[in-house]
Amino acid sequence: MSAQATTSAETVVTLDVVDGIGVIAMTRPPVNALGEALRSGLIDALTDLNGRDDVQAIVLHGEGRAFSAGADIREFGRPPSGPTLPDVLNLMLDGPKPVIAALHGVAMGGGLELALAAHVRVGVPGLRVALPEVKLGLLPGAGGTQRLPRLTGLAIAQAMILSGREVSAEEALSLGILDRIGSGAAREAGIAAAREVLAGKLSPRRTDDLTVAPDAEAMAAAQARLDAARPQLDAPCKALQALAAATGPITEGLALERRLFLELREGPERQALAHAFFAERGTARIPETDLPAREIASVGVIGGGTMGVGIATAFLLAGYPVRLIETEAARAEAAAAAIGRNLDGAVKRGKMSAEARAAAADALRAGCDMTTLADVDLVVEAVFEEMSVKIELMRRLDAICKPGAILGTNTSYLDVNEIAAATSRPEAVIGLHFFSPAHVMRLLEVVVADATAPDLVSTAFALARQLNKVPVRSRVCDGFIGNRILAHYRKSTEYVVLDGADFAQVDRALEEFGFAMGPFAVSDLAGLDIGMLTRRRKAATRPAEERYSRVADRICEQQWFGRKSGRGFYLHDGTEGRPQNPDALRILAEERAAEGISPRSFTDQEIVDRCMTAMISEAVRVLEEGIALRPADIDAVELFGYGFPRHLGGPMHYADSIGIANLVARVEAYADEDPHYWQVPELMRQMAREGRRFADLNGE
Ligand code: CAA
Predict the structure, then answer these.
(1) Is 164 in the pocket of ligand 1 (CB under 6 A)?
(2) Set 36, 75, 113, 188: catalytic member
(3) 577 burial class (0-12, 13-18, 19+ CB within 10 angstroms)?
(4) Distance, CA 395 to ligand 1 centroid (Å)?
(5) Which residue's alpha carbon is at the smallest distance from atom 54 of ligand 1?
(6) Residue 106: in which H helix or E strand, if any?
(7) Cβ 35 under 6 angstroms from ligand 1
């Protein structure tokens, strides 16, 4: 074996030659994103190997955990420089030597497109391939819309590109994306395939020489789905347009694809979705990040209601043994049965194997004896949201749990400092605020009280990773980040209703804006009693100047709590559509009359502007009080816990797109009607003065 190694300037590519086979390794951790340096390195490496007489074939693989995760997403906002990815692909595709792409880990986006331009593709088990660009507001911009259909046919390519779905090595082989699945490391599998190519046992081919059969039915079905989608996003529409060109000459298809890709790259949808991508990952940057996490080998969950059941399920899905405590045996049994149904659902949705489900069920112990929690590493309480109940429980846990155990509270509003102070070990108490259904929703607010030990915070973040959650660090305040913003924002929706809109218009306006469900429909689904209890709890501290809508309280007085009682803001009696509850509208009319309000009309846009301005204003207060670490964390909370439309990036990103000065002007204008509710937060005013954006505060 002869070996020779050269290294490019930034060591993003290494080269060696093995028995006449040139081996290019991409070495840009963590995931070989195809940034400028890597693209240049690949151009140099291919040029070098193409010109060498001692090289007959080329293997391209990635070092580390991935072949390549595609284009470097961080580069999109910057002016383009250096060779483009299509430049790299063309050099490979039209070069004199066959290129074998050897894939492992992930080959996504531009990473897969790189492989699609190779002459042979070998994968190893565990590989996942995808063209997920639409999730980032893009389309595959380096030949994916033209070359994938040449390998798989139009219907499969269209389904993969419009969904961004990941495909395993085995499926990729069956779909024609891979030529074979090798064994061992990708590099060795690639070299073995190259040897077969040189021995004439494996035929290399140019993907571009293949043709695509038209599939009018699949294309029409996809178009119909996109037309029906709300909101209608730009990227999937343009991706479909590019795919439609795949049946024609490839040069034309590639030119169209590139033009559409560049349009999307500069667009707001791409910017927002890239922001969401980094917001999700950026929440882990916390002051406690370097502190070693404690080991969590066993978990106790207290409370077998909806939250407790969901939390226990989340831990079981992640492989933790769980002891669930209820007050009576029958309740414990009911909770165990509900958890069993959740696990069944996970198996049905392909999230868990039947064996893993059996193991998870075995790992659950549900009972009433709290002393069985004496040796668990973490307890999460999810009992009734009432301070006296929480305090009483924490005192008992304090007496029972071993030293070093973490006492987590799943309170969604209450003062974690007060809860912690009830124990003899406030440093062991932390807020772990899950969102319902807790085994599905990705957000986990990690609420850090004044006395919480810093390594509890790093432990909670490590735990969140195991649970596949998006942890966001919050300090203590009423409602923490998410529910505090929600409480303020919900008032704005009540005020526009009182002033002249109705429940359906507000819901429709915010759904058209991008929320899956408007606020009144959400209340009906969750139960109106939740809001009622919150309002009662806050009644004593409500400022006299605060405008108060009695509409929801009066609906609740009728025992109408939404879907579960057949009526709320809407009727839930099986009537077609979403009819408003006529009695709720009557109550609304009576309340307007009692307040002397003559209803006026609002456009949908006015409603969205008011409600979003309210949400942003409170979010800014959360930021300036240091409750949230950075604007992107607030975006993550809203995206992963409250259904904020992802293509708008979250309220802070959206605020930047409106402009801070414009927001100040809006709040000042609304303040003429209600100076108590509409106040410009000081940070907002200051940022407007200085011309700064929230993005500047993210430290990106
Ligand atoms: N560009 C830049 N950075 C990337 C990246 C990319 N394409 N993919 C991942 N990263 C970064 C992440 O931000 C993260 O950085 P930090 O450690 O600083 O937070 C790091 O790599 C590791 O990523 P994850 O934490 O997500 O690791 P994971 O193992 O959970 O997931 C992954 C790995 C599946 C590749 C996931 O990161 C992912 O889905 N990446 C995006 C893939 C993608 O969408 N590619 C298409 C890009 S657009 C394109 O290619 C356009 C084109 O057609 C030319």
Answers:
(1) no
(2) 113
(3) exposed
(4) 45
(5) 110
(6) strand 106-108
(7) no
The 3-state DSSP class for residue 128 equals: strand
Whose alpha carbon is nearest atom 1 of ligand 1?
A: 72
In this structure, what token pair is assigned to residue 490? 């919900």
Q: Which atom of ligand 1 is nearest to the CA of 71?
A: 50
Q: How far is the C-alpha of 374 from the C-alpha of 368, rounded, in Å?
A: 13
Q: DSSP states of 204-249 as a string?
A: ---GGG------HHHHHHHHHHHHH-SSPPHHHHHHHHHHHGGGS-
Closest CA to 140 of 36, 258, 277, 222: 258
Integer Cα distance of 641 and 647 in angstroms: 15
| Of 116, 115, 131, 128, nearest in space to 163 by CA | 131
| Rounded-to-integer distance, Cα 676 and Cα 698, Å | 30
Cis peptide bond upstream of 651, omega within 30: no
**pLDDT of the residue at 106:** 98
Catalytic residue among 10, 133, 217, 545: 133
Q: Which atom of ligand 1 is nearest to the CA of 70?
A: 50
Q: Are the C-beta atoms of residues 317 and 360 closer than 8 Å to each other?
A: yes
605-662 confidence digits (pLDDT tens): 999 999 999 999 999 999 999 999 999 999 999 999 999 999 999 999 999 999 999 9
Binding site membership of 141 for ligand 1 (Cβ less than 6 Å): yes
- CA 1–ligand 1 middle distance (angstroms): 36
Determine whether 113 is an active site residue: yes
- How far apart are the C-alpha atoms of 236 and 270, rounded to whole Å? 12
Quote the distance between the C-alpha of residue 480 and its chain's center: 20
pLDDT of residue 10: 61
- Per the confidence metrics, is the pTM higher than 0.70? yes
In Å, what is the CA distance from 52 to each residue of 55, 658, 682? 6, 56, 65
Report strand pairing: 21-26 vs 57-62.
parallel
Locate tokens 């070098």: which residue? 48
Six-digit token pair at 643?
């259904």
Can you list the residues of the chain whose pLDDT is less than 50? 1-8
Q: Is the CB of 69 under 6 A from ligand 1?
A: yes
With a 6 Å cutoff on the Cβ, whether 70 touches ligand 1 is yes
Q: Which domains does the chain have, with CATH numbers?
A: 5-256 (3.90.226.10), 299-478 (3.40.50.720), 483-626+629-697 (1.10.1040.50)
Q: Report whether residue 151 contacts ligand 1, using a CB cutoff of 6 Å.
A: no
Q: Whose CA is nearest to atom 14 of ligand 1?
A: 281
Helix, strand, coil distribution of the chain in percent, nearest 5: 50, 10, 35
- The pLDDT value recorded for residue 537 is 85
Q: What 3-state class would DSSP assign to 444?
A: strand
Q: Which of 67, 73, 698 to mutate to test the pocket of ligand 1 (most atoms within 8 A of CB)?
A: 73
Q: Which of 28, 38, 108 for mutating ligand 1's site (highest number of atoms within 8 Å of CB)?
A: 108
Active site residue 269: no
Q: Please enumerate in sequence order all residues whose Cβ is within 8 A of that of 546, keeping only pairs 6 or more positions apart, or say none.
A: 676, 677
Tokens of 435: 């969102």
- CA 311–ligand 1 middle distance (angstroms): 28
Q: What is the dihedral of CA 594, 598, 603, 608, to 10 degrees?
A: -30
Q: What is the pLDDT of residue 5?
A: 37
